[in-house]
Amino acid sequence: MKIHKEGRWILSSILFILVLINIIIYFSFSKVFLDVNIVLSAFTFFFFTYFFRNPSRAGDIDDPSLVIAPADGTVVVIEPTVEHEYFQDKRIQISIFMSIFNIHANWYPIAGVVKYVKHHNGKHFAAYRPKSSRENERCSVVIQTPLKSKILVRQIAGVLARRIVTYASPQKSCHLNEHLGFIKFGSRVDIFLPLDAEVYVAHGEKTVGGETIIARLKE
C-alpha cells in the first residue's frame, strides 16, 4: 500500500512531533506513563497512515459514455436538481459521501478535456447535508467528454476537511485512472450529469473510486 503524496509531509511532521513528545516523557515521567504514550502515539500514527493510503487502481474501461465513481464512499443523493454555478439548468445530481475511513483521493470520472475550474471558500457543515453543496468550501471542475457532453464534478469539504486539493486546470486533458485531487478528512463529491443520463447506482450503495460505474451518458 502506497502513501498518497498529499500525506507524506503531514506524516513526517506527525512522526517528528510524536518522537519528540516521547523523548520528553522518557526523561520527565515514569515508565508507565511512557508506555501508555507509546501506545497512543502508535495508534495516532497508524490512523493517519491509514487515512493517506493510496491504492493502485487501473480500471479497464474504454467506453467514453460511461461515468465512473470519482471517490470511495456511499451514495447519499440521486436526484434532479438545478446546478446554479456553471450550467444554470436542471441536472441529475449524484453525491458520494466519504467518511474518515474512506480513501480520500479523487479520480476523474470520465476522460475528456477540463473546461472550467473554480475554488470557492465557504463554511464547513457536515458534508452529507444538502446545503453543503452550495455553502461549504468547494471546488468545481467541468469536463467535456469526447462525445461533447459536459459533466461537473464538485469536491466539497466537510466538518473536518480543511483543505481541498485539485489537480485540474482549464484545457488539461484528463483520463480515467488519473487523480483529480484529494480532500483531507471527511468530505463529499457531487457529480452533475445531463438529465438523459442512465444512472446505475442506488441511494445507499457503496462506491469504489476509479472502478464503480455510476452512469452512462447518452451518445
From TrEMBL:
Pathway of action: Phospholipid metabolism; phosphatidylethanolamine biosynthesis; phosphatidylethanolamine from CDP-diacylglycerol: step 2/2
PTM section of the record: Is synthesized initially as an inactive proenzyme. Formation of the active enzyme involves a self-maturation process in which the active site pyruvoyl group is generated from an internal serine residue via an autocatalytic post-translational modification. Two non-identical subunits are generated from the proenzyme in this reaction, and the pyruvate is formed at the N-terminus of the alpha chain, which is derived from the carboxyl end of the proenzyme.
Catalytic activity: a 1,2-diacyl-sn-glycero-3-phospho-L-serine + H(+) = a 1,2-diacyl-sn-glycero-3-phosphoethanolamine + CO2
Transmembrane segments: 9-27, 33-52
Location in the cell: Cell membrane
GO biological-process terms attached to the record: phosphatidylethanolamine biosynthetic process
Pyruvic acid (Ser) PTM positions: 187
Keyword Cell membrane: yes
Residues the record marks as site: Cleavage (non-hydrolytic): 186-187
CC per GO annotation: plasma membrane
A GO MF label: phosphatidylserine decarboxylase activity
Entry cofactors: pyruvate
Main subcellular location: membrane
Subunit structure: Heterodimer of a large membrane-associated beta subunit and a small pyruvoyl-containing alpha subunit.
Stated role: Catalyzes the formation of phosphatidylethanolamine (PtdEtn) from phosphatidylserine (PtdSer).
Xref: PANTHER family: ARCHAETIDYLSERINE DECARBOXYLASE PROENZYME-RELATED (PTHR35809:SF1)
Family according to the record: Belongs to the phosphatidylserine decarboxylase family. PSD-A subfamily.
Cited NCBIfam families: PRK05305.1-2
UniProt protein name: Phosphatidylserine decarboxylase proenzyme
